[in-house]
Amino acid sequence: MQEAKDYIKNLAILIPIFMIVTIGFNWLMNPYGIYDSPEIEGLNKLKPEFSTHLRIAKAWTVYKQKPDGIILGSSRSEILNPNHAGWRSQLVYNLALPGCILYEALRYFQHAHAIKPQKQVVLAIDFLMFNVFKPNSLDIKREAHLFVNYDGHINSQLLSEKFLTLVSIDAFIGSIKTLIMQEIILIEKLYLPNGQMHWDAPYKHIHHQGGGHRRSFQSNENHYVNSVWIFPPRNQYRFVDPKTGQSTFNYFRTFLNTAYRDNIDLRILTSPSHARLWEALYFVGLWPKFEQWKREIV
Q: In 137-219, at which residue ranges do the beta strands (DSSP E only) sit?
């Protein structure tokens, strides 16, 4: 009986100690770059987990930096330069996200605009962003880190969500990875402090993948044909959800309405692509849909 009491007593002491150590370790390592902990060369300066938790990390970076200009779009937009002389905003952040659908771009626009009114926004739209069947990577867990909800109301749970990352097992594992991966060259400059993907990153990826540009092209085309434009298992591309009647163009209209209402200099571009990818789009029978998409945008 006494042994059981001692066990419970020791457990009651060890659990708070473990929690305090975990919180302190996660804060110091700062794997997602969302806390104000010091950056120490060889210990935590490089952030490999920033790219693996990009939707949370970029959301909190915007909260910290409070830019008045942002870049939105898919991975093609990640290399657009926020420091270009053409910007009129004082501080610009590249908020583009890989595999981003239009709903996600809209939510991050609302997030940044609620934190600080935006003067300029570059929205790079892709055909893939408007497929109603493409899964939304911004799940409930990630959306909880945004400053406002879809209707514009302030997220009252925001700071508690930030604290929860200090005690999460995922962050603890990320802290360990941050510690042991400081010497890996590939992650040294994957993302710059302004949110832009480092201009060397695509070339490093091609080199690391092997096979040169030819293999990279083939891999990219195969990925788009089988997993991006006609996302399995539906293998369909539609602008309107047949069950709910919700159109992805409604999110685009919300972008425009907000920009007009708040006098935001919104620049919209369709992301360029290599001719081989357009040939692949034609091959899978989506070219008429692609032309319809551009007409609808206009």
A: none
